[in-house]
Amino acid sequence: MGLRFYRRIRIAPGLRINLSKRGASVSAGGRGHWLTFGPRGERATIGLPGTGLSYTENLGGRRGGRPFAIVIAIAIIGFILLAAALGS
Predict the structure, then answer these.
(1) Which of 82, 87, 75 minimizes the C-alpha distance to 25?
(2) Percentage of the chain surpassing pLDDT 90?
(3) Is 19 a member of any domain?
(4) How deeply is 37 buried, as exposed, middle or buried, from its count of CB atoms within 10 A (0-12, 13-18, 19+)?
(5) Which domain holds residue 19?
(6) If you average pLDDT over residues 55-73, what whole number do you get?
(7) Is residue 22 in a domain?
(8) d(Cα 63, Cα 38) in Å, to the nearest integer?
(9) Residue 81 burial class via C-beta count within 10 angstroms: exposed 0-12, middle 13-18, buried 19 and up
(10) In whole angstroms, what separates CA 58 from the centre of its chain?
(11) Neighbours of 28 (CB within 10 A)
């Protein structure tokens, strides 16, 4: 059996960073619907809350690292600004 690692960090309502062995991704959405942007492309997920049923559709193939790095940088800057605003 292989070792697994997965962690979600909520940045703001409807925005989270997902960390795993394969890398990081950013998800935006709410209960029952999410858009995820990561190094393996973009995908949309819809589901029926409370049932465990969901459907995921890949929206784009693998992209270069630069656009994804920009998304991560914006998310981190937003997190820092939010933390600073809440700390004041």
Answers:
(1) 75
(2) 1
(3) yes
(4) buried
(5) 6-87
(6) 67
(7) yes
(8) 9
(9) exposed
(10) 14
(11) 16
Q: What is the pTM of this model?
A: 0.61
pLDDT tops 60 at residue 41: yes
The structural domain count of the chain equals: 1
Which residues lie across from 44 on neighbouring strands? 35, 57
Looking at the predicted structure, is the pLDDT value of residue 65 above 60? no
Structure tokens at 4: 């697994």
64 or 43: whose pLDDT is higher?
43
Q: Could you tell me which residues come within 8 angstroms of residue 59 by beta carbon, excluding any fewer than 6 positions away?
A: 41, 42, 43, 44
1 is a domain residue? no
Q: Which two tokens stand for residue 12?
A: 């703001």
Is 27 among the domain residues? yes
Beta-carbon contacts of 84 under 8 Å, excluding residues fewer than 6 positions away, are none
pLDDT at 39: 81
Does the pLDDT value for residue 64 go beyond 60? no
What are the beta bridge partners of residue 7?
A: 19
